[in-house]
Amino acid sequence: MYIGLSSLRIRTHFVIPTLNHKPKSSIFSLLNSSFSSMSYQKELVAAKKAASLAAKLCQKVQKSLLQSDVQSKLDKSPVTVADYGSQAVVSFVLEHELSAEPFSLVAEEDSGDLREDGAQDTLERIRVLVNDTIASESTYSVSPLSADGVLAAIDSGRSEGGAVGRHWVLDPIDGTKGFVRGDQYAIALALLDQGRVVLGVLACPNLPLAPLGVQSSAGQTGCLFSAVLGEGTYMESLDGSSPVKVNVSPTENSEEASFFESYEAAHSSFDLSSSIAKKLGVKAPPVRIDSQAKYGALSRGDGAIYLRFPKAGYREKIWDHAAGSIVVTEAGGIVSDAAGNPLDFSKGKYLDLYKGIIACNQKLMPALLKAIQQSIEEKAASL
Ligand SMILES: Nc1ncnc2c1ncn2[C@@H]1O[C@H](COP(=O)(O)O)[C@@H](O)[C@H]1OP(=O)(O)O
Ligand SMILES: [Mg+2]
Ligand SMILES: [Mg+2]
Ligand SMILES: [Mg+2]
């Protein structure tokens, strides 16, 4: 159902919940029951193993990152040996663990630059990293990958995704700028089934296990979030601990709700988020961290709202939100575009959306959508 708010049509999640939120109408119930009767346990085990191993590789590289490890892509964004290595490891583990299933992977990186003249040293560094990481997993007794094997593993991420069949969706390092800075980043892996996210895993090697802002005595970092449709969201330590169920903040009071946004000012309009926060009466300053670690932190209630408004013309990719969105929705939250429309992961690599991406709990959503619309109108009027 939509309500008119000025010229914008706003989908009222709080009236008709998304498919993840036990909708009442019969068509939604039918759809949901057909998905929830499916088990994704084997896929979940494989995804957790793949993301954890890739996290090991990334942690090793981040500890001693060399200047030569970081390159620039055509769009000027950074890519490192760890982005490539992580993609190769995830691709290898998924194919190995799920060899009986058809395999389709939509992933951020491709091997184009690594096949150029002069990239041999970088490729060799990646090959050694990938083989060392795979060898550290005692259940794999496979011969080491050749350079061609590594290139092929990276390139198995070339699928376009879509609304038919199953597709894995991977960001091997989400938040590469944070990774290079020594800050937050995530390995984000999700599974689409008939265009819908049914499973998501987020490995966040630098995220404290204790809630942000709370000092734990041990100060342990490294979280693994996982979610399967209809089964809730769980967090465990990347070092191995029992998963605990997590939930988004239950707050109904927007004045006490803190919000997350990008660390990088180029990734999101801070002006717009500040205007929205002011309208909601938010008192706390924004919590700015890189990557989908924001979705993980939101899923366990560290903050209550996530705001992301990229510059006009920037197209969001599915691997930047697929895992994070199910981690939040299965923890009881809502993820939508700035007009309240659910994100549609069935259209290939890109998300078509209005203005940006927001997330919070169901009770805060109506006030948040209203504040966003007012702020957008005021900004347009001031131009
Ligand atoms: N100009 C941009 N605007 C918005 N997001 C961007 C931009 N350039 C890269 N990104 C992507 O934004 C995400 C991280 O943003 P943030 O930390 O702000 O949430 C990453 O997925 C990053 O890609 P990448 O996966 O290559 O790091
Ligand atoms: Mg990138
Ligand atoms: Mg990304
Ligand atoms: Mg990335």
From TrEMBL:
Top-level taxon of origin: Eukaryota
EC numbers: 3.1.3.7
Annotated Mg(2+) binding sites: E108, D171, I173, D174, D320
Lineage start: Eukaryota, Viridiplantae, Streptophyta, Embryophyta, Tracheophyta
Function (record text): Converts adenosine 3'-phosphate 5'-phosphosulfate (PAPS) to adenosine 5'-phosphosulfate (APS) and 3'(2')-phosphoadenosine 5'-phosphate (PAP) to AMP.
Enzyme class: hydrolase
Organism from which the protein derives: Chenopodium quinoa
UniProt-listed Pfam families: Inositol_P (PF00459)
Family per record: Belongs to the inositol monophosphatase superfamily.
Matches recorded under CDD domains: PAP_phosphatase
Co-factor(s): Mg(2+)
Biological process terms in GO annotation: inositol phosphate metabolic process; phosphatidylinositol phosphate biosynthetic process; sulfate assimilation
Pathway listed: Signal transduction; phosphatidylinositol signaling pathway
Keywords per UniProt: Hydrolase, Magnesium, Metal-binding, Multifunctional enzyme
Family matches, as InterPro entries: DPNP, Inositol_monoP_metal-BS, Inositol_monoP_superfamily, Inositol_monophosphatase-like, Inositol_monophosphatase_CS
Protein name: 3'(2'),5'-bisphosphate nucleotidase
GO molecular function, one term: inositol-1,4-bisphosphate 1-phosphatase activity
Gene3D superfamilies associated with the record: 3.40.190.80, Fructose-1,6-Bisphosphatase, subunit A, domain 1
Catalytic activity as recorded in UniProt: 1D-myo-inositol 1,4-bisphosphate + H2O = 1D-myo-inositol 4-phosphate + phosphate; adenosine 3',5'-bisphosphate + H2O = AMP + phosphate; adenosine 2',5'-bisphosphate + H2O = AMP + phosphate; 3'-phosphoadenylyl sulfate + H2O = adenosine 5'-phosphosulfate + phosphate
NCBIfam families the UniProt entry points to: bisphos_HAL2
